[in-house]
Amino acid sequence: MILSLARRFVVAAVVLGTLTLAPVRAGAVEILVFAAASLKTALDEITPAYERQTGHEVTVSYAASSVLARQIQLGAPADLFISANVDWMDVLQDQGLMDTTSRVDLLGNGLVLIGGADQAQIGVVQPETDLSAALDDGYLAMALVDAVPAGIYGKAALQSLGLWAEVQDQIAQTDNVRAALALVAAGAAPLGIVYRSDAQVENRVQVVASFSSDLHPPIIYPAAVTVSGASEAKAFLEYLQSDAAQTVFLEQGFALPDS
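Structure (tokenized):
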């Protein structure tokens, strides 16, 4: 009799637990985020905390902003898009693919010249900087200079300095900025141009020099929910603007857009 009662209590507890958990599981949503490759380290740290708090699952697809924008144009089911420049977001917005009421300027960044641990320091890239000599017979790693934001910013900076003509034949273009970072880290390229935040996540490279922010268009990361995006994507975007998330972004070298 005692054993039978005990079993009944166990069954009742299991059933009660199932009923209690059912609404949470039924309400859980998978949020698909398309994010610029430079955001990977930061978002990989931020999203687990949001998942624990909400029970939702956040899946992030990283690539160059240009690639992600084109995928959205072709009907990819992204809920939220975080671009590394305003132009690609503007394209999607003009095509009616983004919820304009959700759009925010989420982050900013800076541009730096990186090299291996033994690379000589330059300080600040100036018009008189001899990049060709620093490269010797090697290549300058950059994201695609006519499509990917980091490459576009980098080319603009070199053009503003009058240095583009002397190095354009020594550019190793990559699909995204993290690939350019990887080339320098592996020793396949002596120098590279990446975001300040990228340089902080790879201990095999060092910042050799910085670029003045007035040499290129402002580096802004706009974010917006797609018109077909789940409503929970707006909540995740709000979380990315919280103190907890912004602390992570700042620690990893990003800037707030109004700073």
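The domain at 28-108+220-251 is CATH 3.40.190.10 (D-Maltodextrin-Binding Protein; domain 2). Confidence is low (pLDDT under 50) at residues 1-26.
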